[in-house]
Amino acid sequence: MKSIVMNLKLLGLGALVLLAGCEPPPNDTVQHGYRGTGMVQVYNPSTVEKNADLHAAPVALPAPAPDGTRADKVYKNVKVLGNLSVGEFTRLMVSMSSWVAPNEGCTYCHNPANFAEDSKYTKVVARRMIEMTQHINADWQPHVAQTGVTCYTCHRGQPVPAQVWFKEPAQNTGADFIGDAAGQNKAAASVNLSSLPSDPFTPFLLESKDIRVNGPKALPTDNRHSIKQAEWTYGLMTHMSTALGVNCTYCHNTQSFSNWNGNPPQRAKAWHGIRMARDLNLDYMEPLQSTFPPNRLGPLGDTAKVNCATCHQGAYKPLNGAQMAKDFPELLRPAERTVASK
Fold it and tell me: pTM (2 decimals)?
């Protein structure tokens, strides 16, 4: 009898160990599409609660009066924000310090002996990131709408955003007899630990390879895309689903994933988001390669680049849709370019 009881206890303990990694029920479900389509979003309340602080927007500092002496008349080497008043300029600088480098403060970007000089690479990068933020808010409203972004959207109080990516080195096909793995079977976090290609970003968020892989007709003559190519597309879709914390049906109609008819508006938002990420990587991140020190570059010497997770970090809307940018109108539009003071 004792042995039976002991065995039952061991079985119970084993069951607890096995179930420890499972998500505790119940989950919340939200019908996201038309009834009968199965377009249901599933949310784990414990996960949402655990990540609440990550997606909480900081309180904005009180806005100063826009009138007064311009910043470029008081400070030297102000190339982007010189048209702001001194009060507005100072408020944004203090805010950026708390958004990006709360521990280091102003000296993360500035030489304390001479704030005007560009001796620190971080200052040069920060200036370009301000321009990138203004570009997103002004020119990519089909994706960010009126919500917009600030430095905090990506950085969340860290000098380097938690979610960035680099190009992957080519596979070493020496004497291991594995053959060409095609970038797969790495159980990478970028594709939610699946066997899909672990770098779906280079072909789609840096290059402009075809994402759509299905043909308009059933006959193979109308579709020259291979199954291998489809796996790269699935890798990108898996990343997007994980980055936003949503199911595939957040963007797609289950009646036909490939058909645009009857799709939620989120699919069009995602279409613009892919092109926005590509634009930012090509025009803002890659050109900074020579500015960053070697320790900030990837294994192939390239700069860190953005993907969906850089802003979203597991939320269907960055910061759960908090409208931080409206409190900083200087980030909503490209500033009037000013000549550096001498």
Answer: 0.87
